[in-house]
Amino acid sequence: MTSEYPQPATDTSTSTAAPAPQPVAQPVVQPVEEPSPWPSSTAPVPAVPRAETAHDAVHGAADEAAPEAREGRAVQGQIELGPQNGPTGRPMPVFPVPAPLEQHGPARVISMCNQKGGVGKTTTTINLGAALAEYGRRVLLVDFDPQGALSAGLGINSHELDKTVYQLLMERGTDVREVIRETAVEGLDLLPANIDLSAAEVQLVGEVARESVLARALRPALDDYDVVLIDCQPSLGLLTVNALTASHGVLIPLECEFFALRGVALLVETIEKVQERLNPALEVDGILATMFDGRTLHSREVVNRVVDAFGDDVFHTVIGRTVKFPDATVAAEPITSYATNHPGAEAYRQLARELVARGDAA
Ligand SMILES: Nc1ncnc2c1ncn2[C@@H]1O[C@H](COP(=O)(O)OP(=O)(O)OP(=O)(O)O)[C@@H](O)[C@H]1O
Ligand SMILES: [Mg+2]
Asked: What predicted TM-score, i.e. pTM, was given to this entire model?
């Protein structure tokens, strides 16, 4: 039986299906519908001033050349613009601290999705979740990757657990509330996963309404939370389709590197198929530039290309590259508690404020 979905385990960064050899200095020719990450000529990329520190990179440095047409969609008429342009080359809005919530739920569900590996999906899930929890939101993180990196990153040894997201999907009668674990961060809960989940990808194929198993399983918990973040695996297979079917929004982390936009057309196609066939309400919440180094022309060029391609869908917030993220993973903590004053922690707090200001989270 052939699947109508792209096959699982499509990690374009590590795929062994060898693409036609490319001369190193030559830009890759993209499919028509996929904007090329690089100029096809040697035309100069608009200059973005050097950000001296990761903090500058996150908070922005002046760029007089940025067109006003790039103002963010929520910015117009609603959010005050700061005096400087941000790292994406657009005027940097001031995102206010979210007002406290008087009551919680129902949750908005957001999938972190990119079939490319190592782009910051798990790091974003943990740290955005922790930042939203700091702002008083009740947050559920869903580990939807059999590698269990999200669970491990929060200090939960999921290999020892009787009930994980696998049982939730595959064993009828399992209540989501039996599977949810509290984390060390107040207001932040986890639906853990381990390697068992890899079997679900195959076993789900024979299920009735196989694409909406996660959506149904999560439903009883939605009223208890303000935001649910799903950490997808680097694949566009049936598990990721389940995540998209269960979601209101998709957040696409993109690493600031040469081939960042490769494969995004396939991801967008998958999102559109899910919108057409399974979940018409699904929205792309935004593209998040990660591992940004404002000192390199390279990072700035990538961000310019991403903004050219996706405009206001690109978050104003970018996440700087810093070793504090892997350090925090080793410590099994979000960066917001591991290095609370670090610019990386502040970047995820800003992303949380931006998400709320855009209306993508409560
Ligand atoms: N902004 C950053 N700066 C430096 N390192 C980072 C940053 N974000 C993530 N990393 C590190 O890069 C590696 C990959 O990040 P992460 O696990 O979040 O990516 P992922 O998209 O979830 O990967 P996978 O597709 O394998 O699940 C990790 O070691 C993480 O600590
Ligand atoms: Mg991951």
From this structure: 0.81
